[in-house]
Design goal:
Oligomer: single chain
Low-confidence stretches: 1-26
Radius of gyration: 20 Å
Strand content: 35-45%
Largest sheet: 6 strands, mixed
Number of helices: 2
Shape: elongated
Length: about 120
């Protein structure tokens, strides 16, 4: 790989190449914060954190057990990427549950990254 010093000595073309190299490094998405396993308390709020570095715009979404979550009555996604479940329920009226494996999906024009899975379990 050619050093930046060589690029800078090549005039305007060197500056353009340097800018392209810098964009290449920043275009990659990387997690600054990934979600962690959590023990949740029935009927209490919980938050899963996710923060991604990269070139904007970056969109963030969440999945539970591989299924995309939408903003709804029981959960909301913050601009910083975090997810809040406003009232954790081990068993809902429809038989579903807030327990499960959650992951954060981030995407920009250059690609997509998926976080580690965070296990959310009800306290006993």
């Amino acid at each position: 790989m050619v050093s930046k010093r060589c690029y800078l000595s090549c005039g305007a073309l060197g500056l353009l190449l340097t800018a392209l190299v810098e964009v290449g490094h920043c275009a990659e998405l990387a997690f600054a914060v990934e979600p962690s396993d959590i023990i949740a308390v029935q009927e209490q709020p919980l938050m899963l954190h996710c923060q991604v570095d990269g070139i904007q715009p970056i969109t963030t979404s969440w999945r539970r057990n591989g299924v995309l979550l939408l903003d709804g009555e029981n959960n909301a996604m913050f601009v910083n990427g975090s997810l809040v479940i406003t009232r954790f329920q081990k068993t809902k009226a429809d038989g579903s549950s807030d327990e499960g494996d959650y992951d954060c999906v981030a995407q920009n024009h250059f690609g997509l990254v998926v976080s580690r899975k965070a296990k959310v379990q009800a306290a006993k």
